[in-house]
């Protein structure tokens, strides 16, 4: 199927001022964008999704959505500048409508089995997007340790988006954007990949990406070490599934994100207001202090004021009970600094699952 030609014949592409399809540059080629305000667009696109699902697909990236030109012409006749921010919301709504319609048509086990559910995740969004999208990811970080567009920025984006209503978010494990020029190179190192696995094992979704230049990047399948590390942290991700389900339910009811900046729960502690990417909470019961610098095997952990319980280091069992204190904690590759509240049922269940999976 030539989807571009089909969309052209149906006249459902965004137009330029001359009345032709508005061709938008996208990496190495130009694309036509669906006019989501056209009454024929939704049914045509849902039929494509239906064929995809009939072939066994249960999840997809509903990518793009942010690129509506501000001088385009839409079927609705509305101002393209105003429509620019509405476009990703309509895009999310269209995908959600298909998911809901598909589920309502299912019967028996297929309808009730969570393994049969559909999920789509989005990069672009505006204020209303979380109402429709089932999941988000943070777009295309550099394969680097940088704060502005590398692994550190993935944590900043995770926490700031959570405060903005995007409760379910994550990044590509290892980042996405590689550059391979004679005097300018960004290539994913094995160490960066391993540390990003450790970080993302404590986000809503644990998902790899080869990046825009796979051959330049270390991949989870590159060697035995990367495969073993991926397996280990997939199990760690699975070990808190019971809590993740609870947090997703809480998010749907209250809007609280799965991954949280500390000031949400320790607002009186002035120190936590100065934190950016250094550490974060998963719910209220897990404290994550990722290693985000090349060659580092120790991290500085801050234990906030206002907590009644001690924090237990999951690898050693050491308790940290002094509030408002900092401590240097060893965090070699494979053993990031993760803490649970001592005596909490959730923390103990998490540790029991880690033992069951032979992680502890």
Automatic annotation (TrEMBL):
One of its GO terms (molecular function) is hydrolase activity, hydrolyzing O-glycosyl compounds. Residues 3-225 form the Glycoside hydrolase family 31 TIM barrel domain. Keywords: Glycosidase, Hydrolase. Residues 255-344 form the Glycosyl hydrolase family 31 C-terminal domain. GO terms for biological process: carbohydrate metabolic process. Pfam families: Glyco_hydro_31_2nd (PF01055), Glyco_hydro_31_3rd (PF21365). Belongs to the glycosyl hydrolase 31 family. This is Alpha-glucosidase 2. It comes from Sesamum angolense. The lineage of its organism: Eukaryota, Viridiplantae, Streptophyta, Embryophyta, Tracheophyta.
